[in-house]
Every structure is written in structure tokens, then in C-alpha cells.
Amino acid sequence: MSPRNRLDSTAGIVLVGTHPWTRTAFDRLPPRPLLPVAHRPLLSYSLSWLRDAGVHHVGVCANRETQALEARLHRHVPHGLRVTYHEDAMPRGAAGAVRDAALTGDASVFVVTDGTVVPSVDFAEILAAHHSDGAALTVVSHLEPGRHGKPAVQVPTGIYVFNRDVLERVPERGFCDIKENLIPQLHRAKQRVRAFTVDQPSPRVLDAASYRAVNEWMVEHLVTTRTIPNGYILSGSALIHRDAMVDRDVTFVGPVIVAPGAEIRSGAVIVGPSSIGRDAMIGSGVLVSRSAVWRRCVMHEKSVADRCVLADGTVVGPAHRLFCSVVPAARQEGVAPRETAVPQHAPVEILRRMRSLVFGTPAMSRYPAAQ
Amino acid sequence: MRVWPIIIDSQPEYLDGTGRGASLLLAPFGTSVLVEYVASAIRLVTENGPIVLAPAAADVRYSEWIQALCPTARVVTSYEELVLALSTHELSDALLFVDPRCTPVQGLGLRQLTRHHTLEPRVAHHLVAFEQAIDGTKECVSLDAGGQVRGIQRYYERTTWPFIAGIAATLMPAAGNVLTDGVLPHSLRELRQLLVARGVPSRDVPMEGGALDLTDEYGLLAANEQFILAATSNADENDAARSTVYIGAGHQIDPSARLMGPVILHAGVIIDAGASVLGPAVIGPGATIRAGSIVAHAVVGSDAVVAE
Question: Looking at CA atoms only, how far is residue B110 from chain A in angstroms?
Fold first, then answer.
């Protein structure tokens, strides 16, 4: 079968059913697939990956809030991609959800990805390997090198390729997981289950640290590859939307993305990788570093946020300092009375003061968690 | 029983400077220098001064720098010198090896080791740190002999976690005689293998909370960040200047320099006009930040110069 024909008979399935297992602030944020990564919902990266590979139809399997998901995703669905949504009313497990979504179409091969992953593997290579191996199911994994004398291990990336006939083994009702049930069952039945090993992991959001890391990775990726989203301009290492307002003496250090309507006032310093969300207000003398500041946040003057996730509408009071924090939506941290006078601002213009720079490291913020 | 502490120093690849900048033990570590941090943990379990195994190609002033920070330390550079330094020990004594390349997040729990050693003096005890899990789990693909996927093994941090990050310290009976065949262990992993080869019984004492791997710069930065935040956590939120911690004396900070966020400045730091230091950051003893430079979330080593 030619690659073109293979693609015509291939559909995508994205699994987005996540459960909050803990009571942490991170689990009080929106479901992981909807978390903004460089101003786009995390799930939209899977859709783009499938579309860019030539897939025309994707089923999105959710276990709750399907309508909200559809509404939020609507404007992020790539042109030419048909997306259908499947709500898992009862706990079906990953394999059950794949079966239910797959059998509504007529594709013969399904590329399944977890909605918390930003796929960074070569789709065509995976598909070719799946067919050439004659596999019933392919597990995409990456090799995690061993350190200090320990052996390397293969870690699954959350991406699989299924043949349609594999799904016959998934029961019509009840719970069936890919890892715990389906793969061992296929192995016992002597079906070919192959591991396709890639060198690089695909970034994945599992907790607050990995969310920050994925956001940072994507912001840095956009800047270093000079991938400029519509409406943005690249100035130094900052991607700034044309409708953002940035004072002349604002300093950007490292990769930063600033959304439309955001306002960054005099003397503020933004250390990347960081993202400043739509309509956020960063006051004068503020230091934001290695953080994801979401929509409509307000950081009053001289406040500090380092390695933070500030969800929509968070207000940080003057001179208040936040480190390694996740602040759920519309929370006020150390807030003093709000300002009433709003000074005038210059149009977007960036002054990047980087004559000599010792830039800290990924280390303090770019966790292995992203992998 | 007397405990004789031995600290293994090293020069990880990222410490590619010269002088004090070529030694992990002399790296800034929050409000102190790493050798001071390790020595203070050792003092909780023994009054004996530490023997420091110098890294290969240590500077001629290495011993002077170590002793300035830890006056009871004795520096050795070879196997012969180490044996000589330990010549007064008795068979009932214990040797405590500490390798700061693996530094527990929750502090060096050396008392745990001495407690175990008191109960089992014939056994070597290794303080081992588990790798920290992301979201509490880790998955690995399990293959059969034919290369087919048999399943995906899921490990849980609290119950089925076999992943060890490293060994932070080893307390072993001097009677183990591991230093008798002319071999100088360069790491605690090597020492543990040596003990196994000699048939000396060993027991691992696991630590909770994970460890910082100082063999890469990420670990050193993360460790410093932890100390910076602890050192500045009591600063008045309305007085940003107090989020800068000055250690020792001799600082020269130009009034036009900008310090934002929590910053620790060690003795003799010079920050020139218009330079910016964006915390969390540690500027090591004698370091200079030249005019117009920006230092963000960094550890600047002793005597380093960040040039324009």
C-alpha cells in the first residue's frame, strides 16, 4: 500500500479523559488538555500534528465536559480537519474509548495519542514502521538513558498505532485499558505488538512542574525556530502580539510570548521562558520569570512571580512575591487596593538589554518532567 | 567508636573554570559554600575534622581555600596520603565517606547512618536517595525475548519504586579494610562495589524526598534555589531590598545596579553600574558582575567575572 493510501485509511484518536487524582491547586485548574501552552490549548498540538501528517478525521474521546471542550477547541481546530467528539459516559478505559470512537468510522488504522502530549515524533516514520513490521499494535516509546551505571529504559510516549482488528478484542462494555489489559492480552494471543523507539521524548503534562516545563519548552521552541503565530511579531527573543502594549523600558530576557491585549508597564522585567496571557496587566517594576501568566491576570507594581502558574484573573498585590506557586482561577494574592489611574502607554516596542547575559538554566525550571 | 569523616571532592564537567571555580566543594551553596554545608552536617555526628580528597589537578592553593572555610579539614591528594591520614584509626572505628555529588533534598541525614551503624557495627551502611517521581509514577515498556511488547510496567513511587538516584554517604567499619589494596574510590558507587567484592556486608538506608544531582549544573542550580528561597523567605514583602542577603563583607554594589527577586551576595562581590541581577541568584565570593550585564537565575562561581 502506498503512503498516500495508508493515510487515507488512517484516522486519529486523541484521548483526553483525565481525572484529578489529588487536591492540589494544579488539579483545580481546567482539565489538562485545555491548559494553555504558548496561548493554545494543549490538545490543539495533537490535532495539528495529526493534520500536518495528512490525517483528515480525528475522534476526541473525553470523559466529561465534552461540550465545554468542543467550545474551547473550536477555533483551534486546524483547517481541513474533521473532529468528532465522543463522550465516555461510563469509565471505559483508554482501550474502550478507542474502540467506541474507532468503530464510528471506517478507517483501518488508528493513530492514538494522549491529549496531554505535544507529539514531537515523525508521524510518517511511525506509520511506515507499523506497516513494515506487520504489527497489530505499535507502542511509541523513547529511550531514557541510564545514568550512574543504571541501564537505559524504554518509556512509552503516550502514542500508539492500532489496527482495526485489534479492537475486536476490546469488550463492548466495561473497563479496558491499553496498558493493563489490551497489550498483555494481545501478547498472550501472539499478536505482534511492537515498540517503535524514538530518541526524543514528546513533552507531556502530568503535573504542575511538567505543565510549566512544557509551556516553557513550547515558548522557547517558537522563538528559536522563528515560528511566528498570526498577529505576533518577533522582537529580540520576545514574541509580542501587535495588540499588546509594552512600555519602552521593559526588559525581556530569554524567550517570552505576550498575548493580545496584554499590558506591560515601565521597568518590568520578564525572564523567559514565560508566557503572558491575553489582557493580563504586568505593573511597573514587576519581575516575572519562568512563569505562565494566564488571561486577565493583574500583577501590581514591584510584585514578583517566579516559576508560577497564575490562572485566569489572578491578582497579585504590590510587592507581593510568589515562588513555585500554582494559583487557581481568580484568586487574589496579597492584594492591596487596586489602582484607579491608568497611565498612557506607548505602542509595542521592546528594549532588550542583553549586552552580556548569564542566563540561568533550564535546570531550575525545565524539568525532566516535560519528557 | 570513633567516626572518621572523608569528603570526596570532584570537578564536574560544568565546573570548567580554574582556581576555586574548579572544585565542587568550593561552589557557592546558598548562604554558604558547599564544603561548609557538608562539614556542618558532619559535625552533627563526629567531632573529628574531615579529610578532603582533592579532585585531580587541584590548584596549588586548594588546601588553603578549603581550610579557610573549614579549619579542621585536612586535604589529601593521593592514596598514600589518605592511608597516612587514617593511620591512627582502630579496627573498631568507622569511616564516613560523604560525596556531595548526591545531596539529599531534605538535608544530609547522617544521624540515620550512625544509628544504623550502632545497631550493626559490622555492616557498611549506604545512605541512598530515590529518584523523584513525576506525578508519583513511571512507566517502562517491557519486552519479551523476541523484542515483542509484553506489557507496560507501571511503577508507583510509594510502593514499587526501584529507581535509585545515588549514594550520598557511606558509613563502614574501619575493619572492612577497603583501603588496603592501593585503590582510592572516586565515588561511593565505586566504594560500594569494592565492599561487595571484598565480601563486606552492606545495607542501603533509603532517604525520602529525593536528591539533587550535583554532577550536572541543573542540580547545583536547583539546590541553590532551594537555599535562596529559604534564606529570603522572611523578607518583608513590602521591602524588596531585603530580599537581597549579604554574606560577609567587602561588597561593592553600584547604586545604579538593579537587584530584583531573591539574591544572595557572598563576600567581596562587585556589581558595576547598570548591571542587573534577577533572582533567585547566588553570586559567589569575590565574583564581579560588570556594567550592563544581566544575570538571571544563576549561580556565579567564586571569583568569576561576568564581563560586559
Answer: 22
How close does chain A come to B133, measured CA to CA in Å? 9
The model's pTM: 0.83
Instruction: Tell me which residues of chain B, numbers 237 to 266, contact chain A at a CB-CB cutoff of 8 Å.
Output: 237-240, 243, 260-262
Assigned CATH for A3-198? 3.90.550.10
Least confident span in A60-64, A107-111, A234-238: A60-64
For B79-128, the pLDDT digits (tens) are 888 888 888 888 889 999 999 999 888 888 899 899 999 999 999 999 99
Contact flag B134-A207 (C-beta cutoff 8 Å): yes
Are A360 and B297 an interchain contact pair (Cβ–Cβ within 8 Å)?
yes
Q: Does B147 touch chain A (CB under 8 A)?
A: yes
Are A260 and A276 a contacting pair, CB within 8 Å?
Answer: no
Of all residues in chain A, what percent are helix, strand and coil, respectively (each to 5)? 25, 30, 45
CATH homologous superfamily of domain A208-366? Hexapeptide repeat proteins (2.160.10.10)
Q: Read off the pLDDT of residues B194-251 as tens digits, 9 standing for 90 and up.
A: 888 888 899 999 887 778 889 888 889 988 988 888 887 765 554 544 688 899 899 9
B181 CB-near residues (< 8 Å, 6+ apart): none
Q: Give residue limits of the domains in chain A.
A: 3-198, 208-366
Q: CB contact, 8 Å: A362 with chain B?
A: yes
B196 touches A at CB < 8 Å:
no
d(C-alpha A281, C-alpha A329), whole Å: 15
Cell matching residue A53: 501528517
CATH assignment, B3-130+164-213: 3.90.550.10
